[in-house]
Amino acid sequence: MKFHDIEQNTDEWFDLRAGKITSSAVAKVMAYFGVKWGDPAKEYAQHLALERFTGKRIEKVSYRSKAMQRGHDLEPIARGLYEMDQMVSVTNGGFFDDGKTGDSPDGLVGKTGGVEIKSVEISAHWKRIKRGGIDTAYQHQVDFHILKTEREWFDFISFCPDFPEDMQLYIHRVHKDENRLLKMRIRLAQFEELIEENILLLKNK
């Protein structure tokens, strides 16, 4: 696994991601585990197959909604508050690259940990405070971080500046779980076969 010490959302970062399974879409891959592929997974496999076949990324400019832009703008604030709350330093997550998959954590903590930060609207933050734990899609994303960075734990951070200061951060630590990681390895290998099937289809046309 090669580590690139680069910033997210740069041209170099987007180019490195082309054709690779990444954490932001791994929930599509994990859906219907052991049963079938959902339409989002099939479309994702076609997307990656086309990027691998052509050798270039499909989208030169990534669409960013207002919510996505808000999350991007607030992420440094959330990271700073987390550092003060946990008394740690968060370093650049960069890009972990093994040729077929790529991972961009929001930050790394020491030699064993990392963070995944979501700056969210009021309703989403309420739900996390009330329910605790972590949403399934984000669980897959964090597990992917742990698998690819070979770290022991990741803190999932929900941040909403509209709450009182002592409630703006919701932190849920996810530890390495070998059973979940084994399922993910199996599913990723199966998904690689689906990508290769699509590449073969392109070659034979």
Care to describe what's here?
This protein has a five-stranded mixed beta sheet, sandwiched between helices. Strands 1-4-5-2 form a four-stranded mixed beta sheet, sandwiched between helices. It has a single domain (2-203), classed as Lambda Exonuclease, Chain A (Alpha-Beta Complex). It has helices at 11-17, 26-30, 39-54, 66-86, 122-131, 136-149, 178-203; strands spanning 2-4, 21-22, 90-91, 95-97, 101-103, 107-109, 113-119, 153-159, 169-175. The chain is built from seven helices and nine strands. It is an alpha+beta fold and 205 residues long.
Query: Order of strands side by side in the largest beta sheet?
Result: 3-6-7-8-9
Average pLDDT, all residues: 93
Number of domains: 1
Q: Class by helix and strand content? A: alpha+beta
Say how many strands there are. 9
For the biggest sheet, the summary is: 5 strands, mixed
